[in-house]
Specification:
By secondary structure, the chain is an alpha/beta fold. The protein is built from 16 helices and 19 strands. InterPro entries: Nicalin, Peptidase_M28.
Length: about 550
């Protein structure tokens, strides 16, 4: 009985088994434990800065790519996109990637406040190195996510190179068994943006007939390696907040004739700041000084520029020319009690060091107050410049010190002033810490790169919010500056962000080996089917003593 059933099983092998295999193999492949959702990911990424300054290109010049992802230790050709944490890549590695790799994708820290001082300094120096020259390869940045962490871990443990493998066989097996990633960014080609920087200014009028004006200036935009991630809490949200708070404080004093001081106070907020050579400040000065009616800046006592006030409790007065001992600027400096850093203007440099140099060039007494001791500080242009409780408190303390020193100067307060008058001024000059923190948090919670704020309407976004805030204390004039399209001083480019797709794939060698394995498997099955009837005949002879009759 059982031999008859075996005969039927043998007949299947003779005629129909190959057809069953053709059906069964795809079914087995489809039923294999592969999750299609886990095989692809979609992320928002942010492109590196791209702009031209005096026709000199800066930043990344490409936007799209479709390349195989590799780690810092396994990439080798221009067909690879290097994926790494920003704190892991060295300047030497970046220089090699810039000249040889196809693209670079850097993942930002999960929490920048947890970085060590050494890690922060390393990231800031890397950012400075990346902005030195233009890059032809696309460079993108991504915020940390658990999915990105898994991808980074896979890339670090995959594609183990020969020097990390014990034997050649181990290296080959690691290459075949590893999981790879195809990284794709489909972005439009870089296009020039129509940039129109805006300057806001308003005046508190002093006692009639005095004629002198004190100018208080800050640029409210931020500069950084990544426009969409340039929050610029210290540089220069703190300076813009200082202008708003000083306007609020002195508007209370100037609101009554009895407490109004002699000089006019002119408050100015500019855009297109540090990395664009203070273009808006330059254009605004040209409009005010080269026009037939130049009364706004007719008799300037001094210009006080505010920049980066939230990184240290101590401030430095940066000047292009030391103030004269009998001058107003020296009087203010003595009352504030800050050291002086003297640096001459070098017009041969591509960029001016501080904003006050724009005013010094026009023969005005000007200086910059800053918590930074040097204009070369990497903290002026970094993605790590974000809001914190400590920076908000430092900003409020420094603004209060500036307000007291300015009031002491314009009212000529001395140590001999009676206690009641001093207490009255201290109450009026008190800084509203809640207001400072609110505006500091608002400005540093959104990107303020020139690509973003100079391409929107003057009454929209950050510019519109600052105009409405300053309008509470004085009449505000909005000046929109145009960039000469024939000989532009600077040119901005888009896109600033894109969508990145990551597909989990096997390496090409895996497809080759898998094909060979399938061919070998089918060959073995084929010959097994062909030999099985003969084997069955021999098996039947042993158990029945005679050959099976066909």
């Amino acid at each position: 009985m059982w031999l008859d059933e075996a005969d039927g099983f043998a007949e299947i092998f003779k005629g129909y088994l190959p057809y069953y295999l053709l059906v069964a193999l795809p079914i087995f492949i489809i039923m294999s434990p592969v999750n299609p959702v886990a095989a692809s990911h979609e992320f928002s990424v942010y492109r590196m800065q791209q702009y031209d300054l005096h026709t000199v290109p800066h930043g990344c010049r490409s936007a799209s790519f479709n390349l195989e992802g590799r780690s810092l230790t396994s990439w080798s050709t221009s067909r690879h996109c290097v994926v790494a944490r920003i704190q892991d890549i060295t300047i030497e590695q970046f220089l090699e990637i810039r000249s040889k790799a196809g693209a670079l994708l850097l993942v930002l820290p999960q929490n920048s406040t947890l970085l060590t001082p050494e890690e922060k300094e390393h990231i800031q120096l890397l950012e400075m190195a990346m902005t030195q020259q233009e890059l032809n390869a696309p460079v993108y940045f991504a915020k940390w996510t658990p999915e990105f962490e898994d991808i980074l871990r896979d890339l670090q443990h995959s594609f183990i190179t020969d020097d990390r493998s014990g034997t050649a066989l181990e290296a080959m097996m690691n290459t075949v068994s590893s999981n790879g990633y195809q990284i794709v960014v489909s972005a439009s080609a870089p296009q020039k943006l129509d940039s129109k920087p805006v300057t806001l200014h308003g005046k508190l009028v002093g006692r009639s007939g005095s004629g002198q004006t004190i100018v208080i200036v800050a640029h409210y935009d931020s500069s950084g390696l990544v426009p969409e991630l340039s929050l610029g809490a210290d540089s220069n949200a703190s300076g813009a907040v200082a202008v708003l708070e000083l306007a609020r404080v002195f508007s209370r004093l100037y609101g009554a004739a009895a407490t109004r001081a002699a000089p006019d106070l002119l408050f100015v907020l500019t855009s297109a700041g540090h990395h664009l050579n203070y273009f808006a400040a330059k254009k605004w000065l040209e409009e005010q000084l080269d026009s037939t009616d130049a009364s706004l800046l007719q008799d300037v006592s001094f210009v006080m520029c505010l920049d980066s006030l939230a990184s240290s409790p101590s401030m430095t007065m940066h000047v292009s020319k030391p103030p004269k001992p009998e001058g107003a600027a020296h009087s203010f400096k003595s009352r504030l009690g800050v050291p002086i850093n003297h640096k001459k203007i070098n017009l041969a440099d591509e960029l001016l060091a501080w904003q006050h140099e724009r005013f010094s060039i026009r023969r005005m007494t000007a200086f910059t107050l800053s918590s930074l001791q040097s204009h070369k500080s990497p903290g002026r242009s970094t993605v790590l410049d974000v809001w914190s409780e400590q920076s908000a408190r430092l900003a409020a303390d420094n603004i209060a010190a500036i307000a007291r020193a300015l009031a002491s100067h314009i009212y000529n307060l001395t140590d001999e002033i009676n206690h009641e008058d001093r207490q009255m001024y201290d109450e009026v000059l008190s800084v509203d810490e809640a207001s400072v923190k609110h505006w500091f948090n608002y400005l540093s919670s959104q990107p303020r790169a020139a690509q973003i704020i100079t391409t929107t309407a003057p009454n929209a976004g950050v510019t519109g919010a600052l105009e409405r805030a300053l309008s509470r204390y004085m009449d505000v004039t909005v000046s929109v500056h145009a960039v000469d399209k024939r000989e532009p001083e600077y040119t901005l480019y888009s896109p600033t962000s894109a969508v990145l797709y990551v597909y989990s794939v096997k390496p090409a060698v895996f497809d080759l080996i898998l094909t060979l394995a399938i061919v070998a498997y089918l060959t073995v099955v084929y010959f097994a089917i062909q030999v099985f009837p003969r084997f069955y005949d021999e098996y039947a002879k042993i158990f029945t003593g005679k050959a099976k009759v066909q």
